[in-house]
Amino acid sequence: MFRVSYSECANEQRWKLCGRLADSWVEELRAYWNEVRKRAPTDRVVVDLKEVTFIDAAGAEVLSEIRSSGAELIASGIANKHLIATLSDHQGKAAPRRPDRMGATHQGENE
User: Fold this and answer.
1) What are the helix (H) ranges across the chain?
2) What total number of domains does the chain contain?
3) How buried is residue 90: exposed, middle or buried, by Cβ count under 10 Å (0-12/13-18/19+)?
4) Cα–Cα 20 to 30 A to 83, which of 5, 54, 72, 93?
5) pLDDT per residue as tens digits for the range 47-97
6) What is the CATH number of the domain that holds 30?
């Protein structure tokens, strides 16, 4: 399950993502992001990831694209904070590995 909340005020867009950013939800987010950003491409953007529970490699790639476009990403939790800190600003590179609670790292769920 994945949910996107979006609000707009004077020269700012706020996005709130909740749930699992994986699989088909990644393309849904990318399409919605592109649609909304076309309407107000110069607005400041804040993307709240505090309620995201999982991010797969494709999810990390779309977040990298979002951040590369100038958005500020906000996260909580060690894994998501680490992921954001290590996101590549270049599309096509491998997604960063996420540490789990036991210190192991994972590219995606099935690794």
Assistant:
1) 24-39, 57-68, 78-86
2) 1
3) exposed
4) 5
5) 999 999 999 999 999 999 999 999 999 999 998 899 899 886 544 444 444
6) 3.30.750.24
